[in-house]
Amino acid sequence: MLFAHYGNDVLFRIGYTDFTLEALFYGFNQGMVFAAVVMWFSALSFNSDGDRVLYLFSFAPKLSLMFSMILGFIPRFNQKLTEIRDAQKALRGGESPRSIKDKFKNAINNLSALITYSLESSIITADSMNARGYKRGALSVKRYKLCAEDIIFFAVIVLSAIYLIYSKAVGNISFIFEPVIYSKSFSISAFIVFIIAELIPFVAEIWEEMLWKLSNSKA
To answer: Which residues contact 21 (CB under 8 A, 6 or more apart)?
Structure first.
């Protein structure tokens, strides 16, 4: 809304700049999209550990290892950098560097310690690769297996995504933000498919919770 000023419905005017309802609604829509993406990746990082990624990409072990390392790279190194900063601050008696020269020197020391940590971690990663079966003749144990329910869920999600992409491509789903807000085309079938695809994680979570409580009650 602060940068885009198109639309017919002017909410207020500051100087010669019009702030419109269409720009506000478009910004709200983009904000919700960005929040949804952040939530998707947060859920992925919460539910996906190294063993699951390695099993999922077992046909390409190098790719699975790289993807697994990328998922844990940023949070692990951010946490380590925080620990290094706290240690450096403790060595200075709790005081923060004041001059630009001291701040630059402190940043170089933190970076040097972080690089040293990454090099040491590479040795641990190499040992972990050997333990996980990345050497000839090693025993590989898989904690997970692909069952019929997983295939059904995956097929429904893929088919739903294909149908929604097709509906968008042929113009069955079209929403206009400029010059006025209105729905140009709306497909009931695409909306139902979208709702089904969105409810799949919720249904799976409820189903697993019911099975877990039922198992505890029998025990």
So the answer is: 7, 9, 10, 11, 181
Name 174's bridge partners: 185
CB-CB contact of 188 with 173 (8 Å) = no
Q: Which pLDDT does position 204 carry in this prediction? A: 85
Structural contact between residues 19 and 5, judged by C-beta atoms closer than 8 angstroms: yes
Q: How do 174-176 and 182-185 pair as beta strands? A: antiparallel
pLDDT in tens, 136-183: 555 555 667 778 888 888 899 899 999 999 998 888 888 888 888 888
Of 157, 133, 130, the C-alpha closest to 143 is 133
Q: What pLDDT score does 34 carry?
A: 92
The predicted model scores a pTM of 0.55
Q: Which H/E stretch holds residue 12?
A: strand 10-14
Phi, psi torsion values for 92, nearest 5 degrees: -90, 10
Residue 35 CA to residue 102 CA, distance in Å, equals: 38
Ramachandran bin of 95, using left for φ above 0, alpha for ψ from -120 to 50, beta for the remaining angles: beta
What whole-number distance in Å separates Cα of residue 168 and Cα of residue 58? 34
At residue 114, φ and ψ (nearest 5 deg) are -70, -40
Q: What is the amino acid identity at position 158?
A: V
3 state SS of 71: helix
Q: What is the pLDDT of residues 124-139, one digit of tens each?
A: 777 776 676 665 555 5
